Amino acid sequence: MKIIITLFFLIFNYCIYAEVIPEAQSEIKITLAKKPTTRPMTVAFIPGQKKYYIADGGLAPLGSETEAPISKSLIHTYDQSGKYLSSTQAGFDNRSIFYNELTYQLTTITYNISSEAGFAPNTGIFSLDLDPQGNLKGTSKEVSNFNPAFGDSATMPSFDSKTNRYFAKQKRSDKVIIIDASEGNKLGEIHLDLKSASVAFDDLSDNFIASTGIDGEELAILDVDHKAILIFNAKGGYVGKSALPKDIKLRAQNHYNGLGYTNNLFFIFNESEGEFGTYYGFKISSKSK
């Protein structure tokens, strides 16, 4: 009987972990063709346009008689093979960029979405206008204003089209806040089981956790110190990890930016490769389509 029970648990655990790819598979490489305004933050992909969009961060100037308080941060467009197409100033200190499959809009969330650091112009969530070919026009529309429900000023929320929710990682903690995208209210908190993953909060990316849209593997976060992507379920339970290539060079900045999840790939910025750095997109689950 003990042998049967042991075999049951072994098979059960195998089924849980089997979908997570033990060694992350590199699917695309985007070599930056233009120097980031300050730092590249996150990446979005629009399937219909077959284009990637990389959003830079960067605070706006204080403003004066000759200069408006508008961020000079750029959003860079690449085709699906990683070829550079163009760069556009949209006027935002971008933190998260994503394609909303419910509204069919390319959307950006700015720094200080929660207003924790005080109010500033062009703060909130905005849809970015595109021409029929998927090129940014440099104009936008407000989706929502600042919202204290997001918590930390530096959070880089990810969006789940299946549930219409945002997931906002909080700095120096295991906490992720869930926000309803329609009403803007806080729905609850997730506390990641870091103990089962054998990591501490300061091993991980501080402000970003990816919403994968994969049942049972809903959340993914970069473990900078151990070069791996950790996967958790919607309740914060540890599911498994996908190891990154040993030769990838991560830096302290990967705790705070140079991330993303789109097109079923987890994106990581390798600053030391290429003149301006290189983004890699990794497949981390066999459930990814």
Helix content: under 10%
Q: Oligomeric state of the chains?
A: single chain
Side-by-side strand order of the widest sheet: 1-20-19-18
Task: Please report the distance between the alpha carbons of the first and last residues.
Answer: 40 Å
**What is the N-to-C order of secondary-structure elements (H for helix, E for strand)?**
HEEEEEEEEEEEEEHEEEEEEE
Sheet-strand content, in percent, reads: 35-45%
Q: What is the CATH-assigned architecture?
A: 5 Propeller
Gyration radius, to the nearest Å? Answer: 19 Å
Tally of alpha and pi helices: 2
Kindly state the number of beta strands.
20
Instruction: Outline the biggest β-sheet.
Output: 4 strands, antiparallel
Count of spatially separate domains: 1
CATH topology: Tachylectin-2, Chain A
* Computed structural class: mainly beta
Runs in which pLDDT lies below 50 for 5 or more consecutive residues are: 6-17
Shape: globular
Query: Mean pLDDT, as a whole number?
Result: 92
- The CATH class is identified as Mainly Beta
Overview in brief:
With 289 residues, the chain is mainly beta. The protein has helices at 2-17, 194-197; strands at 20-31, 39-46, 51-57, 74-79, 84-89, 94-100, 105-110, 125-130, 136-144, 158-160, 165-169, 175-180, 186-191, 210-211, 219-223, 228-232, 238-243, 261-262, 265-270, 278-285. It is 7% helix and 42% strand.
